[in-house]
Amino acid sequence: MAHPHSHDHHHGGHDHPHGHAHGDEHDHDHAGHHAAHDHSHAGHNHLHGVTDQHRIGWAFVVIALFMVVEVVGGLMSGSLALLADAGHMVSDAAALGFSWVAIHYGKRPATAQLSYGYKRLEILAAFVNGCALFVIAAWIVVEAVQRFASPVPVAGKTMMIVAIAGLASNVVAFLILHGGNRENLNVRGAWLHVLGDMLGSVAAIVAAGVILLTGWTPIDPILSIFVAVVILKSAWGIVRSSAHILLEGSPEGTDLAEIKSDLEQNVPQVRNAHHIHAWSITGEQHMVTLHVHPVEGAPHREVVSAVQRRLATRFNIDHVTVQIEEDACMDEHAHEHGGTGSKHCR
């Protein structure tokens, strides 16, 4: 993940002729700051990672087993609502499987080629899962329209039994995932998948009840379209969130103009902040880089520390890289269209 200004990011120490701050003293301090933070959160993040992986693994087993039951039951009963729910469960199983693999490989350490490690696999998995849901929902709608034109007999009793079993499995999977880390996009995506699946099972039960009581089979494709709409809603949320991260978008709730204003108003050592870039590695790990003009006489090391502290406490962003500038911004033209704008460079 390259950023045009990353080569200029050094901190503290003595002054460079161009106003950039260099020196081993703050490099060690900066590294120590992150090491201390990483150490303080390592146990917390590791615990979340392990429990999330276990939850997703068990939910996958439950969903995969009952997915087979629903596919067979849907084919035997002729129910599109059951097949729609089964299609959602196929996506759920794939989502949970991808998520488990992503979390497993995400634990691998960073390398020289992948300096942020494999954590982005979680976001790629979430994006692929969301796209797959769009395809499944489209298939359900097309099949439902065809069934309106050519009604298919439905075995209501078989449909009811299978739908109740599917609902039970979804409730079990939902309870397994409910205590997971909701900030993790994969866990949240899996939880939403299963929640939508529960609604799909309820729809199939309602359809089976109507067919058993009245024999009115059009209720089956009608409620299958309802399931498709539920699927599309969850798919859109997952694709939008994961695509935003893949496109290096600012973390949700992070306003670059607000960061600039907050630093200039609340950090006495900062005269001007500009070229502010914020992005996420995962839904939980956020990064910020920025250029700072310090007030006259402010030690560079002190400026960097103050900016880092402010961003950690006010915006909950702990990985911050600060470039100190005394003269005109060296990257003015390179950043004309980035960050908070080059008009603040001078």
Describe it.
It is found in: Membrane. The protein has 346 residues and is mainly alpha-helical. Helices cover 63% and strands 9% of the residues. It contains 8 helices and 5 strands; from the N terminus they run ββαααααααββαβ. A 3-stranded mixed sheet has the order 3-4-5, with helices on one face. A two-stranded antiparallel sheet has the order 1-2. Strand 1 and strand 2 form a beta hairpin. Helix 1 packs antiparallel against helix 2, helix 1 runs antiparallel to helix 4 and helix 2 runs antiparallel to helix 3. The N terminus and C terminus are likely disordered.
Arrangement of strands in the largest sheet:
3-4-5
Q: Taking all residues together, what is the mean pLDDT?
A: 79
Distance between the termini: 28 Å
Q: What's the overall geometry?
A: elongated
Helix content: 55-70%
For this structure, the quaternary state is single chain
Spans of at least 5 consecutive residues with low confidence: 1-47, 333-344
Strand content: 5-15%
What does the largest sheet look like? 3 strands, mixed
What are the secondary-structure elements, in order, as H or E?
EEHHHHHHHEEHE
What's the Cα radius of gyration? 26 Å
Tell how many strands the DSSP assignment holds.
5
Please count the helical segments: 8
Summing up helix and strand content along with how strands pair, one would put the structural category as: mainly alpha
